[in-house]
Amino acid sequence: MTSNRFWQLNRRPEGSDVSGALSLETEAVPDIGAGEVLVKCAWLSMDAGTRMWMTEREDGYQPPLELGTRMVGLVLGHVARSNDPQFAEGDLVRGFGQWAEYAVVQPELAGLMKVDDQIPDIRQHFGVLGFNGWTALWGIRETAAVKAGDNVLVSAAAGSTGLLACQVAKILGANVHGLAGGPDKCRWLEQELGITRAIDYKNADVAAELAKVDGGIDAYFDNVGGPILDAVLPNMAMHGRIALCGLLAQYQGDGRGRGPEHFDQILMKRLRIEGFFSPDFMDQGAELTIQLAKWHDQGLIDTPFDVTDGIGNVLTAYEKLFTGGNIGKVLVKI
């Protein structure tokens, strides 16, 4: 291939109008500079948190992207050219590149790493063995300190991180409750993942349904924040733990929101709320991968993939993250 197509961020999107903010551009396959690696992308990961990078917000864990530059996201592919001695042509790698057919990567800044190309499905480097799997395991086991017998609640439970968090909690012996939008997702969570109960937040009174959980919620793995968190707080158990890793309810604005309506419950129930991001446990990736791979080989944890074909259809795939149009990990096949 002599050309490269990539998505460029031209303006700050307003609300859900992401398509009006980006354009698909074409160029010659780019050259690379000293220390850089050119990755021929096989798969692009669609992740809701990247929506915040399109805003002007300066105090997030990732600085805002500059206008007129390429949209950044996780890529999985093979090294096409390398000016870094740690990476050779043909290596299968994962890291932060661009929404592009060919991504120019600075390995240290992009967290670029070689991954196993001998596993049956390399997509699992974006699934069980990827950042979603790491986040699920770290958030459930470390941040929320889940133990056997706990009542655990997971929001966005049919999403790429949520469904893995449900499975990790189940492996650890917890009673797992999940929040998802629509009866099909709830049925899938109960029948396919075997969680204790799924609640349809679109068609049920979430607070009333959570009030039925005997003993309250010991640990809440929160991907969304917003009104769902408001419904959860009064139904937490004493000394409950909340692991907050996403704010999906706020990503289409400027990433900010008002404090929870039931803030007083944090004191009254002696709750602990802790936010966590993948940079917090990047240095633990090898250990997390070993544990997740073991469970995956044992058939205890898995993830489905929602695949869209072609660089030109990236925005169709991305939209699913915010409309609830997917079960599992949303990927674009290049």
TrEMBL record:
One Pfam family hit: ADH_zinc_N
Molecular function via GO: oxidoreductase activity, acting on the CH-CH group of donors, NAD or NADP as acceptor
Keywords: Oxidoreductase
CDD domains, per the entry: PGDH
Keyword Oxidoreductase found: yes
InterPro entries per UniProt: ADH-like_C (IPR013149), ADH_N_2 (IPR041694), ER (IPR020843), GroES-like_sf (IPR011032), MDR_fam (IPR045010), NAD(P)-bd_dom_sf (IPR036291)
Keyword presence, Glycoprotein: no
Domain Enoyl reductase (ER), chain residue ranges per copy: 20-332
Protein's name in the database: Enoyl reductase (ER) domain-containing protein
Originating organism: Parasphingorhabdus marina DSM 22363
Higher taxonomy: Bacteria, Pseudomonadati, Pseudomonadota, Alphaproteobacteria, Sphingomonadales
